[in-house]
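Today's session is about reading a structure prediction critically. Students often jump straight to the picture, but the first step is always the sequence itself: look for stretches that repeat, for charged clusters, for runs of hydrophobic residues. Only then move on to the predicted structure, which in these notes is written as discrete structure tokens rather than atom positions. Here is the chain we will use throughout the hour.
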Amino acid sequence: MEFERLKSLAISDSGFIFDPASGHSYTTNGTGVSIITALKSGANPGDIAPLIMEEYQVSPDDAERDVADFLDGLRKLMLI
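Below is the predicted structure for this chain, in token form.
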């Protein structure tokens, strides 16, 4: 999976995302900010669910589903 494009995204702590390559902007919640930040820093998708579990106190199933759903959304937006 290619995450290089994510590195060019500008993302605020409040969840505002700007893609300078396309000029599009998006919004996300705190979980999305955490996922994108982890991916931008080089984390593998499989390593992110434990981070989400710890940060948001959710079950392993919920964290894995949140990460998978968010990655699917990024694919649909052609950001990965």
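Discussion point for the tutorial: The chain has a mean pLDDT of 94.
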